[in-house]
Structure prediction request, 177 residues.
Amino acid sequence: MSKSKTPNKFFKNLGDYTAILLISFLPHLSIFNKIKASVMRSRGALIGKRTKLLSGIWIDDFSFLEINDDVSIAKDVILVATGGIKIGHRSMVGYGSKILSTNHIIPPGKESLRFPGLEYKKVTIGNDVWIGAGVIILPGITVGDGAIIGAGSVVTKSVNPYAIVAGVPAKTIRMRN
Ligand SMILES: CC(C)(COP(=O)(O)OP(=O)(O)OC[C@H]1O[C@@H](n2cnc3c(N)ncnc32)[C@H](O)[C@@H]1OP(=O)(O)O)[C@@H](O)C(=O)NCCC(=O)NCCS
Prediction:
Protein backbone atom coordinates (compact mmCIF):
# COMPACT_ATOMS: atom_id res chain seq x y z
CA MET A 1 0.00 0.00 0.00
CA SER A 2 1.38 3.44 -0.90
CA LYS A 3 2.09 5.88 1.94
CA SER A 4 -0.26 8.51 0.52
CA LYS A 5 -3.24 6.17 0.76
CA THR A 6 -2.78 5.24 4.41
CA PRO A 7 -4.08 8.50 5.99
CA ASN A 8 -7.14 8.47 3.71
CA LYS A 9 -8.01 4.94 4.75
CA PHE A 10 -7.38 5.82 8.40
CA PHE A 11 -9.75 8.81 8.22
CA LYS A 12 -12.38 6.84 6.28
CA ASN A 13 -12.32 4.09 8.91
CA LEU A 14 -12.39 6.63 11.73
CA GLY A 15 -15.36 8.39 10.11
CA ASP A 16 -17.20 5.12 9.56
CA TYR A 17 -16.64 3.94 13.14
CA THR A 18 -17.78 7.28 14.54
CA ALA A 19 -20.91 7.01 12.38
CA ILE A 20 -21.54 3.42 13.54
CA LEU A 21 -21.21 4.46 17.19
CA LEU A 22 -23.73 7.28 16.71
CA ILE A 23 -26.19 5.09 14.81
CA SER A 24 -25.79 2.30 17.29
CA PHE A 25 -26.34 4.34 20.48
CA LEU A 26 -28.90 6.98 19.55
CA PRO A 27 -32.54 6.02 20.28
CA HIS A 28 -35.14 5.93 17.50
CA LEU A 29 -36.99 9.12 18.34
CA SER A 30 -37.93 10.97 15.16
CA ILE A 31 -35.23 13.65 15.55
CA PHE A 32 -32.53 11.03 16.09
CA ASN A 33 -33.72 9.02 13.08
CA LYS A 34 -33.15 12.12 10.97
CA ILE A 35 -29.68 12.60 12.46
CA LYS A 36 -28.83 8.92 11.87
CA ALA A 37 -29.99 9.14 8.25
CA SER A 38 -27.87 12.26 7.70
CA VAL A 39 -24.83 10.60 9.24
CA MET A 40 -25.28 7.55 6.99
CA ARG A 41 -25.66 9.76 3.91
CA SER A 42 -22.49 11.62 4.88
CA ARG A 43 -20.64 8.27 4.83
CA GLY A 44 -21.90 7.50 1.30
CA ALA A 45 -25.11 5.52 1.88
CA LEU A 46 -28.30 6.23 -0.06
CA ILE A 47 -30.98 6.71 2.60
CA GLY A 48 -34.60 7.53 1.83
CA LYS A 49 -37.14 9.48 3.85
CA ARG A 50 -38.75 8.57 7.17
CA THR A 51 -36.41 5.67 7.93
CA LYS A 52 -36.86 4.23 11.41
CA LEU A 53 -33.58 2.98 12.83
CA LEU A 54 -33.50 1.37 16.28
CA SER A 55 -30.35 1.22 18.38
CA GLY A 56 -27.62 -1.40 18.09
CA ILE A 57 -27.49 -1.40 14.28
CA TRP A 58 -24.04 -2.26 12.86
CA ILE A 59 -23.16 -1.40 9.27
CA ASP A 60 -20.06 -2.62 7.48
CA ASP A 61 -19.40 -0.23 4.55
CA PHE A 62 -21.89 2.56 4.00
CA SER A 63 -20.77 3.11 0.37
CA PHE A 64 -22.76 0.19 -1.00
CA LEU A 65 -25.88 0.55 1.14
CA GLU A 66 -29.24 1.73 -0.22
CA ILE A 67 -32.23 2.03 2.11
CA ASN A 68 -35.43 3.44 0.62
CA ASP A 69 -38.34 5.43 2.07
CA ASP A 70 -40.24 4.27 5.18
CA VAL A 71 -37.92 1.35 5.91
CA SER A 72 -37.77 0.17 9.51
CA ILE A 73 -34.69 -1.54 10.93
CA ALA A 74 -35.05 -3.07 14.39
CA LYS A 75 -32.58 -3.38 17.24
CA ASP A 76 -29.26 -5.18 16.82
CA VAL A 77 -29.46 -5.67 13.05
CA ILE A 78 -26.15 -6.26 11.25
CA LEU A 79 -25.80 -5.13 7.64
CA VAL A 80 -22.59 -6.30 5.97
CA ALA A 81 -22.91 -4.13 2.88
CA THR A 82 -19.44 -4.41 1.32
CA GLY A 83 -20.93 -6.40 -1.56
CA GLY A 84 -24.00 -4.15 -1.76
CA ILE A 85 -27.33 -4.19 0.07
CA LYS A 86 -30.51 -2.59 -1.26
CA ILE A 87 -33.65 -2.47 0.88
CA GLY A 88 -36.84 -1.42 -0.92
CA HIS A 89 -39.58 0.96 0.15
CA ARG A 90 -41.56 0.20 3.35
CA SER A 91 -39.62 -2.98 4.15
CA MET A 92 -38.99 -4.04 7.75
CA VAL A 93 -35.95 -5.83 9.12
CA GLY A 94 -36.62 -7.62 12.44
CA TYR A 95 -34.66 -7.69 15.69
CA GLY A 96 -31.17 -9.17 15.48
CA SER A 97 -31.31 -10.07 11.80
CA LYS A 98 -28.17 -10.20 9.69
CA ILE A 99 -27.93 -9.38 5.99
CA LEU A 100 -24.60 -10.53 4.56
CA SER A 101 -23.19 -9.60 1.14
CA THR A 102 -19.72 -11.15 1.37
CA ASN A 103 -18.29 -14.64 1.55
CA HIS A 104 -14.74 -15.66 2.39
CA ILE A 105 -13.33 -17.27 -0.75
CA ILE A 106 -12.87 -20.99 -0.19
CA PRO A 107 -9.47 -21.88 -1.67
CA PRO A 108 -8.73 -25.22 -3.35
CA GLY A 109 -7.74 -28.13 -1.13
CA LYS A 110 -6.84 -27.40 2.45
CA GLU A 111 -5.18 -24.00 2.00
CA SER A 112 -5.76 -21.45 4.75
CA LEU A 113 -9.11 -19.66 4.58
CA ARG A 114 -7.61 -16.53 6.14
CA PHE A 115 -5.93 -14.92 3.13
CA PRO A 116 -7.66 -15.64 -0.21
CA GLY A 117 -9.95 -12.66 0.35
CA LEU A 118 -13.63 -12.02 -0.06
CA GLU A 119 -16.20 -12.42 -2.82
CA TYR A 120 -18.93 -9.83 -3.07
CA LYS A 121 -22.57 -10.59 -3.89
CA LYS A 122 -25.25 -7.96 -3.63
CA VAL A 123 -28.37 -8.64 -1.57
CA THR A 124 -31.58 -7.06 -2.85
CA ILE A 125 -34.65 -6.80 -0.64
CA GLY A 126 -37.79 -5.72 -2.51
CA ASN A 127 -40.54 -3.33 -1.47
CA ASP A 128 -42.95 -4.16 1.39
CA VAL A 129 -40.91 -7.10 2.67
CA TRP A 130 -41.15 -8.23 6.30
CA ILE A 131 -38.01 -9.91 7.61
CA GLY A 132 -38.78 -11.50 11.00
CA ALA A 133 -36.49 -11.51 14.02
CA GLY A 134 -33.17 -13.36 13.95
CA VAL A 135 -33.10 -13.98 10.20
CA ILE A 136 -29.85 -14.52 8.29
CA ILE A 137 -29.82 -13.61 4.60
CA LEU A 138 -26.83 -14.92 2.69
CA PRO A 139 -24.83 -13.16 -0.08
CA GLY A 140 -26.44 -12.87 -3.52
CA ILE A 141 -30.04 -13.33 -2.36
CA THR A 142 -32.97 -11.41 -3.83
CA VAL A 143 -36.15 -11.21 -1.77
CA GLY A 144 -39.17 -10.36 -3.92
CA ASP A 145 -41.71 -7.62 -3.18
CA GLY A 146 -44.17 -8.37 -0.40
CA ALA A 147 -42.38 -11.51 0.82
CA ILE A 148 -42.29 -12.54 4.50
CA ILE A 149 -39.31 -14.29 6.10
CA GLY A 150 -40.20 -16.22 9.28
CA ALA A 151 -38.29 -15.63 12.49
CA GLY A 152 -34.99 -17.49 12.77
CA SER A 153 -34.81 -18.42 9.09
CA VAL A 154 -31.59 -18.79 7.13
CA VAL A 155 -32.30 -17.65 3.58
CA THR A 156 -30.04 -19.56 1.18
CA LYS A 157 -32.07 -19.13 -2.03
CA SER A 158 -33.87 -16.14 -3.53
CA VAL A 159 -37.46 -15.66 -2.39
CA ASN A 160 -40.38 -15.16 -4.79
CA PRO A 161 -42.57 -12.07 -4.48
CA TYR A 162 -45.39 -12.53 -1.93
CA ALA A 163 -44.02 -15.87 -0.69
CA ILE A 164 -43.92 -16.65 3.04
CA VAL A 165 -40.75 -18.61 3.78
CA ALA A 166 -39.46 -20.04 7.03
CA GLY A 167 -36.93 -22.45 8.47
CA VAL A 168 -33.29 -23.45 8.08
CA PRO A 169 -32.82 -23.43 5.15
CA ALA A 170 -35.86 -21.26 4.44
CA LYS A 171 -38.61 -22.93 2.38
CA THR A 172 -41.89 -21.54 1.12
CA ILE A 173 -44.68 -22.37 3.59
CA ARG A 174 -47.38 -20.61 1.59
CA MET A 175 -48.05 -17.70 -0.75
CA ARG A 176 -49.82 -14.54 0.36
CA ASN A 177 -53.19 -14.22 -1.33
C1 LIG B 1 -43.87 -16.91 9.28
C2 LIG B 1 -44.92 -16.32 10.20
C3 LIG B 1 -45.19 -14.86 9.77
C4 LIG B 1 -46.24 -17.09 10.23
O1 LIG B 1 -46.75 -17.34 8.96
P1 LIG B 1 -48.09 -18.23 8.85
O2 LIG B 1 -48.40 -18.32 7.40
O3 LIG B 1 -49.13 -17.65 9.73
O4 LIG B 1 -47.58 -19.62 9.35
P2 LIG B 1 -48.25 -20.66 10.38
O5 LIG B 1 -48.11 -20.13 11.76
O6 LIG B 1 -49.61 -21.03 9.89
O7 LIG B 1 -47.27 -21.90 10.21
C5 LIG B 1 -47.24 -22.67 9.02
C6 LIG B 1 -46.12 -23.70 9.16
O8 LIG B 1 -44.86 -22.99 9.11
C7 LIG B 1 -44.11 -23.26 10.33
N1 LIG B 1 -43.48 -22.01 10.72
C8 LIG B 1 -44.06 -20.81 10.96
N2 LIG B 1 -43.15 -19.91 11.29
C9 LIG B 1 -41.95 -20.53 11.27
C10 LIG B 1 -40.63 -20.10 11.53
N3 LIG B 1 -40.36 -18.83 11.85
N4 LIG B 1 -39.64 -21.01 11.39
C11 LIG B 1 -39.90 -22.29 11.04
N5 LIG B 1 -41.15 -22.75 10.77
C12 LIG B 1 -42.16 -21.87 10.90
C13 LIG B 1 -45.15 -23.69 11.34
O9 LIG B 1 -44.59 -24.50 12.34
C14 LIG B 1 -46.13 -24.46 10.47
O10 LIG B 1 -45.58 -25.73 10.22
P3 LIG B 1 -46.55 -27.05 10.08
O11 LIG B 1 -47.42 -26.76 8.86
O12 LIG B 1 -45.57 -28.16 9.87
O13 LIG B 1 -47.33 -27.10 11.34
C15 LIG B 1 -44.49 -16.35 11.68
O14 LIG B 1 -44.44 -17.70 12.11
C16 LIG B 1 -43.17 -15.69 11.99
O15 LIG B 1 -42.08 -16.28 11.90
N6 LIG B 1 -43.29 -14.39 12.34
C17 LIG B 1 -42.15 -13.56 12.64
C18 LIG B 1 -42.33 -12.94 14.04
C19 LIG B 1 -41.28 -11.93 14.34
O16 LIG B 1 -40.14 -12.07 13.95
N7 LIG B 1 -41.67 -10.88 15.01
C20 LIG B 1 -40.78 -9.79 15.34
C21 LIG B 1 -41.29 -8.53 14.73
S1 LIG B 1 -40.10 -7.83 13.65
Observations:
- The first helix runs from residue 5 to 25.
- The helical segments are 5-25, 30-42.
